[in-house]
Amino acid sequence: MSENAKAGGWRENKWIRGAIPALLLHMSIGTVYCWSIFSQEISEYIGWSKSSCEWAFSFAIFFLGMSAAFLGNVVEKDIHKSSLLATICFATGMAGTGFFIWYGGQHQHSVLALIGIYICYGFIMGVGLGTGYLSPVKTLMLWFQDRKGLATGLAVAGFGAAKAIASPIMTSMLTGLSVAGKEINGVGNGIWKMFLVLACVYFVMMFVGHLLLKKPAGWHEPTGAEKGPSMFQVIKSKPIGTYIGIWLMFYINITCGLALISQEKMIVKCIGLAAMAGVMSTISAIFNAGGRLGFSAVADGMKDRNTVYKIIFIISIALTGIVILTKGIGNAFADGAQNVLLVVLVLALLFMVNAGYGGGFSNVPNLLSDHYGMSNISAIHGLTLSAWAFAGLTGNQMASAIVKHVAETKPETLRTITYVEHGVEHTATTNPVGYQTVLYVTCALYVVALLLSLFLVRPSQKALEAKAAKKAAAGK
Asked: 229-469: what fold?
């Protein structure tokens, strides 16, 4: 950091002006992944099927990616406008979701309530998610130019850690805010109150992040003629296959991640850990956050960041293949007996998928900057996040469709399990064959992603220069 930056005190401190606001923003918007905590309660409270309500989450991820793609230039020009837009949209969307849940409780099976939740949780929050996700990334890369991977990994880890931190809090609020005798369809009225309270909490967190977020004083953002080539001109300056490869392998990694993460709770029940489903969800979220930080930090020491994706895909293929061959999901807990080795293998797969899913996110901006430079990086990163949008519509929906098809065509494979949670006995119907079938699809997709990483995504100029330098040194 320059002497001028040091003289600025906290106003030019990279942690206060870069890292902390990034965490405040990402740890707020990352709670979108807590959807599974309350989705069943929402569907029962408003009188709609769970599958109908699930589209709210799919829309949120879709509009996250699309808003990032189309508003990337806004983020590039003014992070204060984009972070304020994110704050307003995310908090408004969350409060609106709470209102329409309340309305749906008063007017059962209301189409207006369902559409209102789609608009608020899906569209409005989605715009807040996209702009909020992008806003701190370039700023962090500018503050931590020597360790860009670690910096962006730290922020994006906040997005992943949000679920681990917020899940137990939300679970507690669902019951703590409910008033006895005010239940609707057996669900307490704490469900809509939770959204209103959290809307206020996250508005404060994100607004503080918005106020603190600032690019380094020495950085001059190019404008007009200074800016040089447009985003598409920058992309086309390199072999177009490289960008297509990055986009596709990013899309596949998210699709596979969402496919398994969306079924994670039921898979955990299949392997005999039903009473620990909540704990396993929290551990998975920790692996998700750890993958974001760990894989990006490791990539800082690599000549080619694309190597990280090869590692992620190879490990994912190996673990998925082992669980397929051993039929781990179905055999880990059968006839009342638990196979510890198979349980460990299935958990290892779930944890690795979460870590690889997170690591894929944190390495994308740095992989793009290695190939295309810092010019227009927010816009290029935003365009690439459109892969997240389409994966949001295909990942969990694909897995749900496979599981549903197996349940309808092979009802004899369904299992009913009984477990005790918090002293109360529960029963649940599981579909181990359905979840096992999902693995065949994700394994094939991981293989395609690995081939893209190996043969379509070319080494960056930085990687080629490092290779040439090593060759020259060896020749001396």
From this structure: Growth Hormone; Chain: A; (1.20.1250)
Look at strands 337-338 and 415-421 and give their pairing. Answer: unpaired
pTM over 0.90: no
Which residue ranges make up each domain of the chain? 9-214, 229-469
- Residue range 312-325, pLDDT digits in tens: 999 999 999 999 99
Q: Which CATH class is domain 9-214?
A: mainly alpha
Tens of pLDDT, residue by residue over 120-147, are 999 999 999 988 888 887 788 888 877 7
